[in-house]
Structure formats: C-alpha cells, structure tokens
Design brief:
Serine Threonine Protein Phosphatase 5, Tetratricopeptide repeat; single chain; flat
C-alpha cells in the first residue's frame, strides 16, 4: 500500500522521462505545441530540443527538415539527453542525413547509456556483441544488456540468455547463482538492520523507510510488519508516516474501515505539511466520512492543495464553489470582441470571466504571444474569484504543460525521497540528470540516486552504475 500518486503526476513522468509525449501534448493545438517545445528548448530543457528534432524528422506539424532534426538532436545530446543521443546515433549508424559512422554511433549510444537510458545501454550491448564500431566483447555486451534488462526492457533479458545459449558467455552455475542471491540477501538484511537500529534510537525517517521497505518486499505480510513503524514515526510527528498509517483505516485489504481514525491521522499529516493528506481531508469533509460534512472546510482544503501544486484539488475547488453557492456568475456581453488590453483592464476590475478569457488567449496564442505561465496565473485568479470553468482549466493546462508544475512537484518528491516513498529519489535524480524544470546538476542527481540506492531502490542503483561507465 503506497501513497496515492495523482493522475497528473504520472503524466508528468510520462512526458519528461519516456517517449517524447511532448511532441503532441494533451489537447494543445499544433501551433501551441510548437511554441511550447521551442520555448522549453531555448530555456534549456533538452528533452524539448529532442522533441523538436523528432518533429522535423517526421514532419509532425512542421515542414520536414532533416538538417534541423540533426541540429536539435545534437543540441539535446550535447547535454546528455538520452533520447536525442539515441536518435542521432541511429542516423549515424544507418548513414541517414549524416555521414555513416559506426564508431560515432556507438559513442552516442554510450552517451545515452551514461545519461541513464536503458535503451542506450542495450544499443551499446549490441555494438559490443556485433563488434560494430568497437572491439567485440561478449562479457561487456552481457553486462550492458543486464543494465538494460534491469531498467525494465524485457527484450534485453532475452539477449543475455541468447549469449549464454550460444556459449558466447559462461552460464552461471547453480552454485554461483545461489552465491549471488545470498550476497544480495545479506546486503538487504544489513540495510534493514541499520534502519531498525536508527529507528530504535529515535530516527523517525528510518522508521518510515523501514515501514515502506516491508510493503515493497511483501504487500500482504508487509502490512502487518509496517504498522508499528508507521505508528511510531507518526506519533513522533513525521507527517508522511501519518498519511500512510491513515490509509490502513480506509478499507485496504483485510483491514476494517474506520473513517474516524483515518480522518484523525490524515489531519495530523496535513498539519505536519504533507499536502496530499490535506487533499484527502477535503474529500472526507466533502463526503462526510469520519467527520460531519462541511463544504466550507472542504473548499479551504482543496484551495490549499491547488495552491501547493496538487492540481487534483483545483477542479474539486470548483465543485465546492458550486455546492456552497459562492460561484461567481456575472453576465458580461461581448467579451470575445474585446482585445487583450481591454480584457486585462476588466480582469483587474475583478471581472473574473475576463481573467479566464484572457488566460485562454495566452494559452492559444490568440492575439497575444503564447505564454502558458500567464495563462495559469489568470486561470488561478479566475478560479479563486469563483469563476467555475477556470478551476478545471488549471488542471487541464498543467496536464498539457507538465513543466509548469515541476518546481512544486520537486518539493513533494523531496519529501517522499526522504522517507523512501514512490521511488521519488530516482525520479529526482532523473530530473536533475536531464535538467527538466531545474538547472542540470549531475552531482545532485548522483546524490539522489545514492540515497535511493541506500534505501533499496534498484533503479537508483542501476542509474549509478550507468553513470559510472
């Protein structure tokens, strides 16, 4: 049982880390997408440079231009953006739009692997396996395939088995496999004992990490083992452990529902500064779960969540305005005919529909230059002025333009990284290694990967090994 990750945060990760979803953001026009990618690329977000390269390579919303594609991929790869390096390497490997060079392609794949890409490591494994642009070395190939396999690329696991079946690398004997497993188990036991010792001596963070560790290892048995650690940390004032403990009382698995207890612990967590618990409290007040129904308190909590970057609270805030009869609805004629200056004057005069309309224009580049941050601020002003449609628009915009919210997300992920929750340390490492929404900082990325690895997160350990190649 792990903390609930709101839908929009999953979208942020998908857009920033994986296949270039930013090539076609959710619901934005082609014109807005192109402006967004160029703005982010010029601001130093290299994944957006890769997205532009992909656009020009495929002619996606632009006139196909291979020279521009190469230029943008080079810009991205120079800053170790793995996707840019991989696309550029493919071009050199095949001699498409650049002079063919297996050696250059292999070096670019190595750069992608060092940038934390399992795909890149797999391609370098191919180069070693085939002796393409580099001396043939099956052992190194197998090592790189393992890094790629551990990163979740199942096909690369098969590559290792193929090398073994063809007798190109030695099969691990049963004894060697048992020795490896025993060593891994010993490291894990040592880690658990270290956290237990620190927890016993009053380190509340270690108590929470320990509780999480039991859940990760065994969801069912781990629930029973984790309870005393979450309870101990919560009683000591660690807010995330209170949130996790509260979840036990909401009917998970074999645990009996007890909304009053869940409310009590969510409240402690919210008061301790974990905003996700404030969002849960708002839901409890809205539905009357474990507490008397109170739409005004729900409204206040949803506003706090929306304000602090948990944008699932924004549309809920609009709903509460409607239920408390505080929605703002003033008939204003011909707003669509007003220019941006007139809308701005009207917005300053607290005509919140004008604020919403002006925000929409900045989002669409309609009569004004694209400016997604201005659009968000105007939507917020309209929402907090109780103009209903704008509350949902904040949510939609931040799903469409995830980088708008990364700085606030980093604050949440740092909280969760401290207690070993949701692989947050690995997420932070990925953000800093690629410079998404933050200034690129390899040293800081390594620090987060090391912390994640210390807590037992295999992906973080894997990233450290990639960086050391």
């Amino acid at each position: 049982m792990s903390s609930f990750i709101p839908f929009y945060r999953a979208l942020i990760l998908f857009t920033l880390m994986g296949f270039p979803a930013s090539v076609q953001a959710f619901g934005l026009s082609e014109k807005a997408n192109l402006a967004l990618s160029k703005q982010h690329c010029s601001d130093g977000y290299q994944r957006s440079c890769s997205a532009l390269g992909y656009r020009y390579l495929r002619g996606n919303g632009v006139i196909q231009d291979f020279n521009k594609a190469v230029m943008y991929f080079k810009d991205a790869c120079n800053e170790y953006d793995a996707f840019g390096c991989i696309e550029l390497a493919k071009m050199y490997e095949k001699g498409q739009y650049v002079e063919q060079s297996s050696k250059v392609a292999t070096n670019l794949f190595i750069k992608a692997c060092k940038g934390g890409s399992g795909w890149g490591c797999g391609y370098v494994g191919d180069s070693y396996s085939l002796g393409r642009g580099i001396d043939q070395d099956f052992q190194k190939a197998a090592h790189l395939y393992k890094l790629s396999c551990d990163d979740g690329l199942i096909a690369r696991c098969k590559n290792i088995k193929d090398l073994m079946s063809e007798n190109k690398i030695k099969k691990l004997t049963k004894q060697a496999t048992l020795a490896q497993n025993k060593e891994e188990e010993h490291r894990k036991e040592t880690r658990i004992e270290d956290f237990k010792f620190k927890c016993k001596n009053g380190d509340l963070i270690s108590c929470t990490i320990l509780g999480n560790q039991f859940l990760v290892d065994d969801v069912f048995v781990g629930k029973q083992k984790s309870i005393p650690y979450f309870e101990m940390a919560c009683e000591g004032g660690e807010p995330i452990s209170c949130h996790l403990f509260a979840q036990y009382f909401t009917g998970h698995g074999e645990f009996e529902r007890d909304y009053e207890s869940a409310f009590f612990y969510y409240q402690r967590s919210c008061e301790g500064g974990y905003i996700l618990s404030c969002l849960e409290l708002g839901d409890f007040y809205q539905r009357g779960k474990g507490v008397k129904r109170d739409y005004v308190k729900a409204l206040s909590l949803f506003k706090e969540a929306c304000d602090n970057g948990w944008i699932r609270g924004c549309p809920s805030l609009g709903l509460m305005y409607k239920k408390t009869d505080t929605a703002y609805n003033t008939p204003v004629k011909n707003l669509d005919t007003l220019d941006a200056d007139e809308l701005e004057k009207s917005c300053r005069a607290e005509n919140y529909k004008a604020c919403y309309q002006l925000g929409k224009r900045f989002k669409e580049g309609n009569g004004v230059k694209f400016d997604f941050e201005k659009a968000r601020q105007l939507y917020k002003k309209a929402c907090y002025g109780r103009f209903l449609g704008s509350c949902t628009s904040i949510f939609v915009l931040q799903v469409e333009v995830p980088l708008l919210n990364v700085k606030q997300d980093i604050q949440h992920w740092e909280q969760e990284c401290n207690v070993g929750l949701n692989n947050a340390c690995n997420t932070l490492g990925d953000l800093y290694i690629e410079g998404h929404g933050v200034r690129k900082n390899v040293e800081l990325a390594i620090r987060f990967y090391k912390e994640g690895c210390r807590q037992g997160d295999k992906k973080s350990c894997n990233r450290l090994e990639m960086l050391s190649l």
